[in-house]
Amino acid sequence: MTDPKKTSTAEATITSGGLVFKNQKQTIESLVGYFGEGAHLTVEMWLWERRRSTASNRYYFGVIVRRIAEQQGMTVLDVHKALKFRLLQKPLMFIDVKTGEVIDEIVVGDDTHNMTQKEFNTFVRSAEIFSAEFFGLDFTSEERNDFYSSLGPEADAATAQAIEAHQKNATPADGPEEKSPGIDPGD
């Protein structure tokens, strides 16, 4: 197969009758106009997952992150980076390509911008639990209302996952343990 010179993306749904494109007529006309009639195409498909909601973003950045930033005298961006590092640790290894030996290992805070809504909601709940335990912050029902009402039927499972993940990463009772800083390219 040769490298494609032209690419296009179209949203579709699988039904018992076949593949149905969103805005079917315009999509087909657009594809014919772009690739030309009679063009042979290779179609790559993946399952679309809902991305985080604006309600989740508002609650995370506007309530949790903002309150920590105000209390700690930090910027919102620095708090976001710190929460990613603390709650989304991702180990990276640098390997010597000649010997296969590990040269260095670092830990970074994984990105949040490509998370599905379920993943981001779990992260937000972990941030909420962390904020309560380490900073004594309590979030009112009003502050959380938009976020929790946007969760849907998987809310209880997400809560259980967040609590379990937090407990696995919990630090000793005497406070947060020191960790070496990681490299974070940001979101």
Give structural notes.
This protein has two domains: 1-48, no CATH class; 54-168, no CATH class. The protein is built from six helices and four strands, in the order ββαααββααα. The chain has helices at residues 24-35, 54-72, 76-87, 117-135, 141-149, 155-168; strands at residues 12-15, 18-21, 89-95, 102-109. The strands form two sheets. A two-stranded antiparallel ribbon has the order 1-2. β1 (12-15) and β2 form a beta hairpin.
Topology:
Layout: E1 12-15, E2 18-21, H1 24-35, H2 54-72, H3 76-87, E3 89-95, E4 102-109, H4 117-135, H5 141-149, H6 155-168
Antiparallel strand pairs: 1-2, 3-4
Supply Rg.
22 Å
How many runs of DSSP E, i.e. beta strands? 4
Mean pLDDT: 75
- Helix-strand category: alpha+beta
Number of folding domains? Answer: 2
What is the H-and-E element order?
EEHHHEEHHH
